[in-house]
Structure formats: structure tokens, C-alpha cells
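Human: Here is a favour to ask of a fellow structure person. Comparing notes only helps if you start from a blank page. I am asking you to supply a protein in sequence and C-alpha cell form. Write it directly below this note and I will take it from there.

Assistant:
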Amino acid sequence: MSLDLAIILPTLNERGNLAPLVERIEGALGAEGWEVLIVDDDSRDGTADEGRKLAQRDCRVRVIQRIGRRGLSSAAIEGFCATAADYVAVMDADHQHDPALLPRMLASLKSGEADIAVASRFAEGASTEGWAEPQRERLSGFANRVASFLTGVELSDPMSGYFMLPTAKARAMVPRLSGIGFKILLDLLATSKETLAVKEFPLNFAKRRAGESKLDRAILFDFLAGLYDKTLGRVIPTRFALFGTVGALGVVIHYAVLLALFPNMTAIFWKAQLAAVLTAMSFNFWLNNWLTYRDRRLRGWGEYLRGWAGFVATCAVGGFANVAVATLLESEGVHYVLAAFAGILIGSVWNYALSSRFVWGRF
């Protein structure tokens, strides 16, 4: 029998969810004509190993374990490129997405009724009672309205993480997809050169079976980052823009500390500037870890402290240049506010380049 459908499961710490989900998928699709691609972001709970155990017993299961790469969107993109199936679906591995919808979604694509089938949490007949997160529901409603306006596609849930489309169509868009963040459907809709015909299927959004959600309060920032990437990302790289945004907030912290210390608490400018640099540097590390590098976020006190130390170390030269340039300019009669700003500019490019490489990247 031909391979009709590949189901991509982007995973992060989903070990206990895999086997039951494969059973549910088989119950919905039958024994043949499909495969499951587990694209795992190097989970600490052994998700990839559990997937390989399943694959040893079931040739319909395959595993892609990613080292140094994270994010749902990029995981979906790797799945698009790794299957020979005619159609590809993306769904969560936490059992919030009902596999029973898969046959109907596939039928709508095969019949030509739709270019992309979307399981919607907000379509008529859908339910989010199992979600039990009213704040996230309100946020999704706002994001849906903005996404519909920008993509020109009328959908009740353009932020859905459960959808299906022809694999050839998905792969054709891959070179233009941003791969940033968690909303790959929005990326596809915004990237397509032609308006895609969409059919929605009401989804009873269930409660997570096990593990922890990959999403958090930074989801709105992640959503805005995706929108930025699709509009201005070719002009200024998105991650640099995010880093710069965080840096701008760091400037506020920097000046707050500087103005508090100089000349009130110390008459020596370089001491006040150094204290401001260290405070702003620590603030920037925390916010960049939470937002800019959310897909590579450092977790746990050990990893976090090592990351902070690495951030300080990689930014040390930039920080030294910051203090040196600012001090030189101030000693030459430049107003200390302008001198401090010049120091910040000198250090910012260095900080971005090295921290991206050595703190949240790979050597």
C-alpha cells in the first residue's frame, strides 16, 4: 500500500505520550498508509529513545533527534523534508489534538475540496473545555484576529497547531519559511504566493495527557516575532531585532543605575558606568533567555548560571570597550549621558555576535 500520510510530532519531553498516541493514530487511520515522524528537540526525559524503541517494533514510526536546534516551526519544516508521503499533518504529541479528525482532513485534501485542512479550537461545534486556560484562550482570540487580517485568510483559528496539507505544497514553501517560533500554520499562510483554500474541522481541544506545555507567557512575543519576520525580516534579521529590542530596555536599566550612582553616590564616573554595565548585562541575559532565544532557552539553575557566566564572559570585551569609550568621551568634555550612549553602541554589536554563538548557539 502507498504511503499517503505522514504525521509530524514535534516533541519536547513527551516520552509518556508517544505509545498511546501511536495507538490512537492507528485506531483512526487503520494499519497501513501512514507513518509517524517524531521530531524531538533532544528531550531530557528520553523521548527520542522511547521513540526509537517504538520504531524497533513498528516500522511506521521514525525519529529525528535534533541537537542544538529547537522550536516547533523548525521541527515541522524538517518533517516536511524527511517524508515521502503525499500528504503531511502536524499535530501535538500531548493528546490535546484528536487523531480521529485525520481521516476527514485527509479526505478533504484528496477530493480537492481544500488546499489545507485545519483543526480549529474555535469553529462552530468545537470545544476548549479541556483547555482550562482562559488567559491563553483570550490571547489566541487576539492573535487569530491579527493573523486573519495579515494573511487575508478567514479562519477561526489560524494559530492552530493541528493541520494537514499536500507535502509537495509544503516543501515548495520551505525555502521561504522563517522557521521561527511556534506558529508554523501562520507562517505557511503568510508565505504562500496564492491564497490557500482552507477547510476547518471543529476540534474538541482536550486536556494534556502528560508532561509540560511547550508554550508559556512569552507566546505573544513569539507571535509578534513571527509577524516581524514575515514583514521586515529580510531587512534586519529577526533575532538581531529582538536582541536589539531587549538591548533598548537594557539601556533604560543602564541609565537608571547610572543616574542613581553618578554623581550622587560616587563622583567617579567609571565606577558608576561599570556598575550600570553589569546590571544592564544581567538584565539583558535574563530577558534574552526568556524571549529572544526562547527556542533555545537555558533551563535549570546550573545551566542558567553557566549561561549567565558565559554571557558575561563573551560580553566582557564589549563591556570593556563600552566603559573605555564612554570614559574617554566624558573626559574630553562630552556630556556623560551622550558618552554613555556611545559606549553602549560600541558594545552592542560585539555582545550580539558572541552571545548568539557561544551562549545560546554551539561552538
About this structure: The mean pLDDT is 83.
